[in-house]
Design brief:
heterodimer; A: mainly alpha; 72% helix; elongated; B: Rna Polymerase Sigma Factor, Chain: A; two-stranded antiparallel ribbon; 8 helices; globular
Chain lengths: 81, 199
């Protein structure tokens, strides 16, 4: 396996904090010498950062308060109870 | 399985409705939000979340006691959502009204920051649409994995348990999803946008 290919297989370990120390050393050394891999990693990191900006629409409290009632109504129709 | 959950399961199996309500209260937000994250549609997410609880109720007797309850429920949710995504013919339309109430990511328990009626800037709304559109570029399964890890705080090991695959497979799926998102975001916005400059 080429160093670039090996490097790319370690990107997800790096991004998700699962890199072992030996792998970390290899990655650091390779990234210093390979602008292409470095650029790819920078873009992946930027994509993660961008995606972290996602927000969820929140439902009002009444949605949660009535959730059980709506569920039991459906379950009764389906003869669960 | 936690002793407390074992006790709930036993009581449900004895026909105790209150115990089932306890289980629903414990998981309703987690299930709804995971379904919403995967499907991107409020009504579908509620529908699926309720169907998940019906499946849980009906198959609880067959639940393997040595398994983790949360993983089992997440598994039912994920499979239901992936099926729904595969059957879907078009992307859901995201209304700006959806963002009248927002919660910052990972607000599964409902305990973190919740902003009422924020006046989201046009840029912020566009950014949300771009993120949502980018998420449709990954496969349903990759999307589910990405959502579980990034927005629902599931560890890689737990996602592997949910999907019944190895941790290595989960990491590969995450990498494929991220790589597609990277390409999609680069194509449509250029790197400056991904780095936070939306002008």
């Amino acid at each position: 396996m080429s160093d670039c290919k090996k490097c790319r297989t370690l990107f997800s370990d790096l991004l998700y904090g699962e890199l072992e120390s030996g792998q970390k050393q290899f990655l650091e050394n390779h990234l210093q010498d390979c602008p292409k891999c470095k650029s790819e990693l920078d873009e992946l990191t930027a994509a993660v950062r961008f995606m972290e900006g996602r927000i969820r629409p929140e439902q009002g409290q009444s949605f949660w308060d009535d959730y059980w009632c709506r569920l039991t109504k459906r379950m009764k129709k389906r003869k669960c109870f | 399985m936690e002793e407390n959950e074992q006790n709930i399961v036993d009581r449900i199996c004895q026909g105790n409705k209150e115990a089932f309500q306890e289980l629903v209260e414990r998981y309703k937000k987690k299930i709804y939000f995971l379904a919403y994250d995967i499907l991107g549609d409020h009504h579908e997410a509620e529908d699926i979340s309720q169907e998940v609880f019906i499946k849980v109720f009906r198959s609880l007797k067959n639940f393997r006691r040595h398994s983790k309850m949360s993983s089992w429920i997440y598994q039912i949710t994920t499979n239901s959502c992936i099926d729904a995504l595969r059957k879907r013919k078009s992307k859901p339309k995201i209304s700006l009204g959806d963002f009248n109430h927002i919660s910052i990511k990972n607000n599964v328990e409902g305990g973190s920051t919740r902003i009422q009626n924020p006046e989201l800037s046009a840029d912020a709304s566009i950014m949300q649409r771009r993120i949502q559109n980018a998420l449709y570029e990954v496969t349903p399964r990759e999307r589910a994995v990405f959502m579980m890890r990034h927005y629902n705080d599931l560890e890689i090991k737990e996602i592997a348990e949910v999907l019944n695959v190895s941790s290595g497979t989960v990491k590969s799926m995450l990498f494929r999803a991220l790589n597609k998102l990277r390409k999609e975001l680069s194509i449509h916005r250029g790197r400056s946008a991904m780095e936070g400059n939306y002008e």
